[in-house]
Design goal:
The complex is a heterotrimer of chains A (191), B (426) and C (311). With 191 residues, chain A is α/β, with parallel strands linked by helices. Chain A has a domain at 14-71 and 87-155: Rossmann fold, CATH 3.40.50. Chain A contains four helices and nine strands. Chain A starts with a strand and ends in a 12-residue tail after the last strand. In chain B, the strands form five sheets. A six-stranded mixed beta sheet of chain B has the order 3-2-7-18-19-20, covered by helices on one side. In chain B, α2 runs parallel beside α3 and α7 (209-225) runs parallel beside α8 (237-248). Classes of the chains: A alpha/beta (191), B alpha/beta (426), C alpha/beta (311).
């Protein structure tokens, strides 16, 4: 297998984003509209969150508030990883209490990132409801966490990692798999 | 070691500052004495071609720590270290515990040196009782017991009047003074040289004025009393300049420098490694260069190690609390060859002189050269042999050296005391 | 987001860090500052990790700051002071540290009166070692919180003019601050009586001033250091009155400052000696913010260092 292999092109990414956004709209804006906020998890969850908000705005006129979350302080693998990347900006410009929160991340893999994000979000207040939106669900769950809105499902071998690239950040939209040397059930990078 | 009754060291280059010879020559040894090789018909020929054959090296400044701190070193291990370092004789400093300030203490040293010493141990007696700096020690008795010099090393006498009396008294007994030049007030509780690095590191410094003022005092007394005062472990540029001027005037002062003071500076302290902590401290690059210049122009006639063993436990503490001192017998020749011979500062004969004729002159010894009839005390050096310093392989009991792991070119490869090989890596 | 990652298991001195590493700490501290501003002021980053606060030299403020930082990171904490430790019984520092290591501690935060004590430990034990002050040598977290405060208020460090005034000779804060600011491109002036600010400091790359006006004219930041009565007794200057007249920041001397010059002090303040109350409490003073920022910076440092401690 080559080191980096594209498994989904720009059109596929666009379609997946729309599918996720439609899911959110269908639950919260169709029959009985409710306010909600969108929180992107660094790194790639943030540009994805912005895309979803844009799409929702264009389709319905509603603009949910955007939050950004870096979960480095909530990881369960400090001291076990090879290295610790720099912390990115956490921005929660609204009161978390009673809010409907759509957590957004690019890839759902083990579920550990989401667990950390849930801890972080609940440290800001007591949300009314939390939903999880992901672009890619690769299904190798280590924690009992599932996505509420999924753009696409991919079956990927354990030794490969899913990487999502966006035009805003990497210059083009696509989903790739790359070689990943680490064993299963040990500390992984962003998933 | 195989005890050879007679042998010829053949093919080596003799460098003998006592006779001025620097040439390829064979040296004969029979029954512990130097003999004309032509007189030995059936003797074994030992090939020392490519090596330097020198009179036995003398270290004027060694702490053997026995009695009182045998955990750090004993007469046996210290003299084995001396032999491995190429030294055939050492002068044992008297700041043992109890101090060597009585005839009994000197007799103890002579007894043990005779039994377990591997090289010649010259005893040195205290100038003052218990090195307290207040009352003169029984210098006459010490002379009778066999001391070759007097010193309060570790400390300097602060009371100038007492010092003058001691110099006068020592002159009558023909005993040279080896003085540790230090004004205690200016030294204070400093732990390193007072200069740029002590300022940058926020550590307490010892002003070089502490040494320079006592150097001045000693020069004045050497002139006034007209007696030999040898200044131990000079460390400052100003001290060297004072000695240079004094010697020009014919004042009987001599001076020594240590290998570490000519190799290292106070910048090393930024690592906070206590193997760079000693007294007098490592000083600036300017001071280091001045010491080398002093060795080059003959102002400084002696190199002595100030070999100061300390157990690892004692040294592995906070820099401020660690005792002063590092060992030096087994690294002296490699370090000095680098700084003085391979660098072109001294010829091989001038280099050898710092360890032979220089110290012998201080002690008034005239039988240390390679002249037939003298005792066979010989140091053989290979100036090209690569050596990587491994403190764990030292013969010394202690490991407190800053040179561990470093590679040098040149070392002593054989040491002969009274005709017997006490160290042989030929 | 750059590829830079923190790789050191110890924080011993600012001298050992480069500009990139310093900025990494400051950027991380920005995020931790936010934690202290929300309702739940805790994160689980150091949950299950044991931090030992080993204050061989006593301290109130720095110790409090570190303890709170550790609690906010959910660490388990043990406090040891010299009087309660077996150092009193003659145990060496290294043995005490090895005992702490044997208890599976992850980090040791140490303040010690002997310069370089931390270097001795860091070499020999597996725990991460954080320097909370060693003799007159180094106080890296103070320098980091000072630089953080300046960067936050002024937007940058490069090109700023910063004056540090006081007993520089005996101050670990002055040395660490100067190194940090120089590494980030500021112009640093050290000022005080000539007995307390020797010219040797110029070898760092700073300007030495023995005249207050010369030192603080046109600066963007002035950092006052506490003057200690012990120094007066030791003969470094005649009296605190004279010190205050010639080197204190008061109604008279503050005329040399710009309207937007920031006033800093590591605390505790000798009001009326190095700094007048009106200025300490005035609008240009950021002294209390320094304390707040100290907490964030210490959380950041603990977080980064803990990530590199391998068992």
């Amino acid at each position: 297998m080559p080191a980096k292999k594209e498994v989904c092109d720009a059109d596929g990414v666009k379609a997946a984003v729309e599918k996720v956004a439609d899911g959110i709209i269908s639950e919260f804006l169709d029959a009985f509209p409710e306010d909600f906020v969108v929180i992107g998890i660094h790194q790639q969850g943030v540009p994805l969150a912005r895309r979803l908000i844009d799409f929702i705005k264009n389709k319905t006129g509603y603009v949910p508030e955007l939050g950004m979350l870096d979960i480095s302080m909530y990881r369960d693998d400090i001291g076990v990883r090879q290295d610790l990347p720099q912390i990115s900006e956490t921005l929660i410009p609204f009161d978390m209490n009673d809010k409907i929160v759509i957590l957004v991340d690019d890839v759902l893999s083990s579920g550990r990132t989401i667990r950390a994000a849930l801890d972080a979000v609940t440290d800001y207040g007591r949300p009314g409801l939390i939903r999880l939106a992901v672009l890619v669900n690769r299904g190798s769950h280590e924690f009992p966490i599932g996505a509420d809105y999924t753009g696409m499902t991919l079956a990927v071998p354990a030794e490969r990692k899913v990487v999502v690239e966006f035009e805003e950040t990497e210059g083009h939209d696509r989903v790739c798999t790359i070689d990943w040397k680490k064993k299963r059930r040990s500390a992984k990078e962003d998933d | 070691m195989n005890v050879k009754k007679e042998f010829i060291l053949s093919g080596g280059k003799v460098a003998d500052p006592f006779s001025g010879v620097e040439a390829k020559r064979d040296i004969g040894v029979k029954n512990g004495k130097i003999v004309d090789p032509k007189s030995l018909k059936k003797a074994e020929k030992i090939d020392v071609s490519g090596k330097i054959v020198a009179p036995g090296f003398i270290d004027l400044h060694v702490h053997l720590r026995q009695p009182g701190n045998s955990a750090a070193e004993t007469i046996e291990t210290g003299t084995k270290a001396a032999a491995a370092g190429g030294f055939t004789a050492v002068v044992a400093m008297p700041n043992t515990s109890p101090a060597a300030d009585t005839a009994a203490a000197i007799e103890y040293l002579n007894y043990h040196a005779g039994r377990s010493g591997v090289v010649k141990v010259f005893p040195c007696g205290c100038m003052t009782k218990d090195i307290a700096g207040t009352e003169m020690a029984p210098i006459g008795s010490l002379k009778n017991a066999g001391v070759v010099a007097l010193s309060d090393d570790g400390k300097g006498i602060q009371n100038h009047e007492l010092m003058k009396h001691i110099v006068e008294y020592a002159k009558a007994l023909n005993l040279p003074i080896l003085d540790h030049c230090e004004d205690e007030n200016l030294k204070g509780d400093g732990v390193m040289h007072e200069g740029v690095w002590s300022t940058l590191l926020g550590m307490k410094g010892m002003s070089p004025a502490s040494e320079e003022l006592m150097v001045a005092r000693n020069i004045i007394f050497a002139r006034m009393v007209d007696w030999k005062i040898h200044l131990q472990h000079l460390s400052s540029k100003e001290s060297v300049e004072q000695v240079r001027a004094a010697r020009k005037r014919g004042i009987p002062v001599t001076a020594e420098a240590t290998p570490h003071h000519i190799a290292l500076t106070d910048e090393c302290i930024k690592k906070f490694d206590t193997n760079y902590k000693m007294n007098p401290p490592l000083r600036s690059e300017e001071d280091r260069k001045a010491l080398i210049a002093g060795l080059a122009d003959g102002t400084i006639t002696v190199i002595a190690t100030d070999h100061a063993p300390h157990t690892p436990t004692a040294k592995l503490v906070e820099f401020d609390y660690a005792p002063f001192g590092i060992i030096g017998l087994e690294t002296a020749i490699p370090v000095c060859l680098k700084e003085l011979y391979h660098s072109g500062v001294l010829s091989i004969s001038d280099f050898v002189a710092k360890f032979t004729s220089g110290p012998a002159a201080v002690l008034g010894l005239d039988d240390r050269g390679l002249k037939p009839g003298n005792a066979a005390n010989i140091t053989i050096i290979d100036t090209e042999r690569k050596v990587k310093i491994d403190a764990n392989k030292f013969y010394s009991k202690s490991r407190n050296t800053p040179f561990n792991g470093m590679t040098f070119k040149g070392k002593a490869v054989a040491t002969i005391v009274d005709g017997k090989f006490v160290f042989n890596e030929l | 987001m750059g590829k830079f990652t923190w790789t050191k298991k110890d924080l011993l001195s600012i001298y050992d860090l480069n500009a990139e590493e310093i900025c990494c700490i400051l950027d991380t501290a920005e995020e931790f500052k936010k934690v202290s501003q929300r309702n739940v002021k805790k994160v689980p980053a150091l949950r299950g990790k044991t931090v030992v606060n080993f204050f061989v030299e006593p301290s109130t403020r720095t110790r409090m700051s570190f303890e709170l930082a550790e609690q906010r990171l959910s660490a388990d904490i043990i406090n040891i002071s010299a009087s309660l430790s077996s150092l009193q019984k003659g145990e060496t520092l290294l043995d005490t540290a090895r005992n702490i290591e044997a208890l599976q501690a992850d980090l040791i935060v140490m303040r010690h009166s002997a310069a370089g004590a931390h270097v001795l430990l860091a070499d020999k034990i597996k725990c991460g070692v954080l320097n909370a002050g060693d003799g007159a040598h180094s106080h890296p977290t103070q320098a980091l919180l000072d630089t953080f405060t300046i960067r936050e208020k002024k937007g940058k460090i490069k090109g700023l003019k910063v004056a540090i005034v006081g007993d520089i000779l005996h101050s670990r804060v002055a040395r660490s601050d100067a190194w940090a600011l120089l590494k980030l491109g500021a112009e640093v002036r050290l000022a005080g009586p000539s007995t307390l600010v020797p010219r040797e400091f110029e070898k760092m790359g700073v300007k030495v001033c023995h005249n207050l006006k010369e030192a603080i004219k046109g600066v963007d930041v002035v950092n006052l250091l506490r003057i200690q009565h012990e120094r007066q007794k030791a003969g470094f200057f005649p009296s605190t009155g004279e010190y205050s007249k010639f080197f204190g920041l008061n109604e008279e001397t503050c005329k040399y400052l710009k309207p937007d010059t920031m006033i800093m002090h590591p605390g505790p303040i000798n009001r009326g000696i190095e700094l007048d109350s009106s200025l300490a409490d005035g609008s240009r003073s950021v002294i209390l913010e320094q304390v707040t920022n100290g907490l964030a910076v210490r959380m950041a440092v603990l977080f980064l260092v803990a990530g590199c401690v391998k068992k």
